[in-house]
Specification:
With 207 residues, the protein is mainly alpha-helical. 68% of the residues lie in helices and 4% in strands.
Length: 207
Amino acid sequence: MEHTSITTSKPQGTLLFWVCLCLMVSTLHTLVPNEQKHTVRQTASTPPTEVQTTAYTTADPGHGNGGTFGCGNKSVCDLYCSFCVNSSFRTCYEVLVVHLCRYHFNVAMASMNSTVWCSLERVKSAYNNFTVCTETVADCLLLPWPNHFVESIFVDIHTTYFQECPTEALRDPPPSIVLALVMTPICLIPAMVVLVVLKTKNGDRRS
């Protein structure tokens, strides 16, 4: 009898252990989704970031005596706009193009030998970087691009660096091509005349 009571007590202890374990696991499963739902609810309640211009305050008379002005939303625009707070955007744009974009272009060109300035493969990187720089600054300051000032800068660059570059002048084609182009219609005219005469004779015979 004592052996029987000991044998039946072990399954009861094991069953109690598994019941407690199942309750703990179910409790954990109910808690985790609630936390996740709370996180999702917080994320959904946060309004999405709007793509808009940043407002800057300035005391420059050109901006309306302490009014606000917009700035582009690119990553580098805050730097440009903060630099231009105390001046008009057009004046500041010209300063940035000359002392930033044009400066880096001049440095890039000076690092090359003047004999390769006419090589497109060698100068296109510096030229493209200068173009992108002027366009990016204009976009940040909400100015039109291209504009008259940028066009004058490009003219000055071409006059300074590319004026001596040879240009391919229009040349006459080789004599063989000229002869072929001239002789082709000349040979076709007699052939067309012969065809017309034969067609006329055939028509007269039928009639």
